Amino acid sequence: MPVVVELPRLSDTMEEGVVAKWLIKEGDKVKRGQVIAEIETDKATMEFESFDAGTVLKLVAGEGETLALGSPIAVLGKAGEDPASALASATSAASATPAPAEEAAPVAASENAGPATAPAPEVTSPAPAAVSVSDDERRIPASPVARLIAREAGIDLRVVSGSGPHGRIVKADVEGHANSASTSTPAASLSGDKDEYGRPYATRGDVVQPISQMRKAIVRSMTASKFSAPHFYLTMDVEMDAAAKFRSECNMSITGTKISFNDLVVAAAARALRSHARVNSAYTEQGIVEHGDINIGVAVAIDDGLVVPVVRHAEQKTLTAISQEIRSLGKRAKNKELRPAEMQGGTFTVSNLGMFGIDEFTAVINPGEGAIMAIGAVREELALDDDGNVTRCRRMKVTLSSDHRVIDGAVGARFLGTFRDNLEHPMRMFA
After folding, report:
1. Looking at the whole model, is its pTM more than 0.70?
2. pLDDT classification of 248: cutoffs 50, 70, 90
């Protein structure tokens, strides 16, 4: 009897996934425990090991297709068996199951911060406006996500071709139909909308970009944080001349490791948190949790958004160890090789946009934490020395975003003062 392989839950917050890459093809023999596919979840791209053995009779899901949990993705069995009956049974069972919670409309996220390092609390958002659905449309085989997108875009499912099992309409079909409609029927130029030579301007249709699993996770976690945690912000200038000199001396004396300003920032923040436990805390309904460990998340920009790998026990590590770990985590983050455990358990986050030339910004706190620190560029400025002479100096702006349920202004200010002292007198941190 053929066995239908279903999309499994590969992370605690996963609601749907994408088959990023198949590692098998139809006709291959598969062993139990063999890695057969790479699945993109809301946190990372992960290897999927088969729970069953047999010959690959059919690959149901195409690469890049978004699927709900439990959707058929492949059929295994004995060579020569017909996969159709097994797929028909799985499809009819799925059609009889009530639509999952994924039909709730997503809400907009802030762009300033990375995804959560801990599961986000549920957020109740307004339900989409009721839409009249005919009996004919209800009988059309389509995934819940495809129905939602079609309703919001005003697309009649009867004119959409389905590419799923037995012609089932999936998310990609609706989005493809919308893209085709927008590019084939661009908006007409308004009368008088011409250039100085009297020629009408060219019009281009809108393109709908599919939302990745990672972006959906950012939407959920950042919306939950922004609407549940009352943010306030403290900004301070830090003189970086001593830190720059210290960094240069380290890089001349340490072989094989190059210390960055971001490494120094993480080290300085970790040691400041050791003296200000309230900033290393989080709000819960049971009380304010002052974390015993200091685990610093470091936001890393990747193509799909941001991930926040965690440097654990950061205050106990040498500067060299911190530097090597941040580089390893950053490299694996860009290659989508991070394990979910490496992005969980953070107690405080550092988000650095200085390398992009940003002088100052504010970031959104990751759920499960009480604060996040936004780091700007190290810039050169003119200043007056103690004798009133004009001199050059390096400065860096830092902005602490704090959850006012946990941290008061004076507490955050004292933390920033210690952080600044650590960078302006870096030898003290390692004495």
Report:
1. no
2. very high
* Edge-to-edge strand list for the sheet holding 390-403: 231-239, 390-403, 371-384, 348-352, 296-298, 310-311
Across the range 315-342, mean pLDDT stands at 92
218 and 306 in contact (C-beta within 8 Å)? yes
Angle (CA) 56-61-64 rounded to 5° is 130
Q: Give long-range contacts, CB 8 A cutoff, 24+ apart: 139-142.
A: 140/169, 141/91, 141/95, 141/166, 141/167, 141/168, 141/169, 142/168, 142/169, 142/170
The whole-number pLDDT of residue 165 equals 61
Residue 132: what pLDDT?
44
Q: Does domain 3-103 sit in CATH 3.40.630.30? A: no
The 10s digit of each residue's pLDDT in 381-407 is: 988 888 888 889 999 999 999 999 999
pLDDT, greater one: 325 or 172: 325
The ranges assigned to domains in the chain are 3-103, 230-430
By annotation, the residues acting in catalysis are: 404
CATH topology of domain 230-430: Chloramphenicol Acetyltransferase (3.30.559)
Q: How confident is the model at residue 282 (pLDDT cuts 50, 70, 90)?
A: very high
At 128, the pLDDT band (50, 70, 90 cuts) reads very low
Task: Write out the chain in H/E/C secondary structure.
Answer: CCEEEECCCCCCCCCEEEEEEECCCCCCEECCCCEEEEEECCCCEEEEECCCCEEEEEECCCCCCEEECCCEEEEEECCCCCCHHHHHHHHHHHHHCCCCHHHCCCCCCCCCCCCCCCCCCCCCCCCCCCCCCCHHHHCCCECHHHHHHHHHHCCCHHHCCCCCHHHCECHHHHHHHHHHHHHHCCCCCCCCCECCCCCECCCCCCCCCCCCHHHHHHHHHHHHHHHHCCEEEEEEEEECHHHHHHHHHHHHHCCCCCCCHHHHHHHHHHHHHHHCHHHHEEEECCEEEECCCCCEEECEEECCEEECCEECCHHHCCHHHHHHHHHHHHHHHHCCCCCHHHHCCCCEEEEECHHHCCCCCCCCCCCCCCEEEEEEEEEEEEEECCCCCEEEEEEEEEEEEEECCCCCHHHHHHHHHHHHHHHHCCHHHHC
